[in-house]
Amino acid sequence: MALDLSMFNRFAVNFQPGDIIFCEHEPGDNFYLIQSGRVQIVKIIDDLEKIIDILQPGELFGEMAILEEAPRSASAVALDNVKALEFNRENFEILMKGTPQIALKLLKLFTKRIYDQKRRFLILTLDDPQAKIADVFLMLSESQPVSDDSVNARTFMTTVDDIAHWAGVSPVESKRILSQFASQRRLEIFPDKIIVQNINDFARFVSSKRRSQVSE
Amino acid sequence: MPKAVNYKSNSIVYFKGDINEKIYILNNGRVSLNYNDIETGQEMHDLIKTGEFFGVKSAMGKYPREETAVVLQDSSMIAFSVAEFEQIVLQNTRIMIKMLKVFSNQLRRIHKQVRSLLRSGNDVTDPETGLFNIGEYYLKARKQKQAIYALRRYLTYYPSGKYASEASGLIESAEGGTMPVSNISSQGTTSRTPGSDLSDTAKSYYNAVSLFSQEKFKEALSGFKNIVEAGIDGEYEAKANYEIGRCFYNLQNYNVCIKHFTSLIQKYPKHPDLIDALYYVGKSHEGSGNVDKAKGFFKKVISMARAESPIMRKAKKALKGLEV
What we know:
Number of helices of chain B: 13
Structural class of chain B: alpha+beta
CATH class of the largest domain in chain B: Mainly Beta
Distance between the termini of chain A: 49 Å
CATH architecture of the largest domain in chain A: Sandwich
Distance between the termini of chain B: 51 Å
Oligomer: heterodimer
């Protein structure tokens, strides 16, 4: 969707790498549309800074505060030199009416977020921590297009900490489970990525756990 | 092209798990969306009203249907492709904004459910403590720049807050520590800089707001009055003027409150808080027992306020309270 946003230039703001754009718990009435650079969404959980998302140009963030007048649920930090358009509650409706494409973007963003959160909820309802971690890989693979269906191995650009965060399992325990999987040759761990040898194996494992949980 | 489709009673528009790009609007008849609650597993039935869209989220998000759409009595509906649906809402922002509200509520709810399972759901910390904790966290993590930002924001919103002196102390030590202050603010022409660059007027304004939120209305009132009297910054002057009226209301000086807001409205006919001001005039009339006048003002608010806005709800509630 190519949008002419030049009329909104007066709303432009710039940030340097590492700048906090807004902070968790801060009362929020602005939301942002990234024009250039990337923005990290982070949350401090149990004294650890967790990266929840990395947003690209064209993406929106901070949109929850504007609809619900609630404090920020996470912080936004500039990863690069970031140029963004900053809107607030007063000009929100003007913006929505004048540029309904942005409202549509928001609508799509919400459908995606709702789905992702529901998917995450399903992971968390599993009792077995091993199954939780396997299910995180399934979730990641669902959102990642595959070029060749006949290949069962999947590469995930992710870290042990990320997996722990999604699974709701402590990093220590996640590490233990992942190395157990690695010793069974079900996956390989690299500093910047994890390769799952056979994603279908994980799918079978998770669905059998889920079934046995239901029948209990 | 959007297509009119008819369904017989007991037929199925789509099954849970189907992948299908259609979005429907119910023209007449009865359709129920059946699904299992993700938390309890309980079977849920959501009835679709005529004129309501369904199948929106899964079609737009391109994921499998999350519910089965069952036709309860002979129904007619129109089926849209995602592209057609987008065209419609792009031309009808009212529908879109309504959907945005529904979706944002759903999102809040699922967020909450996730948090309750994560059990670190004990982050029910109040925002004030939360913000301060983040400053502390960054300090510990030796991220001075971020720590200073969070602590400054803390002081902006809670200058008389419970950690205020601690926060100032931490900022000082963070600044003295490793990095020159000039690095804190970002550069560039339109850069917005952290709380440090707030004008004195803004600081006194937020200070008074903070006093107000602690229900120290007298102290807040004199703070706001100082801003208006100083008359340095027109924007804050107008904001403070509005807050003065709210202080009078909370101090139960109803007549003064009415007078104050009346002159405010004359002075700033386009004040951003105009509708709220009218609401407080209504509440003041209510407080002094002028029920008819109060009702008049609440009705005025309802006629001017945006649908679903908090002030609209408040005015409706107030009006209802008087009609019993």
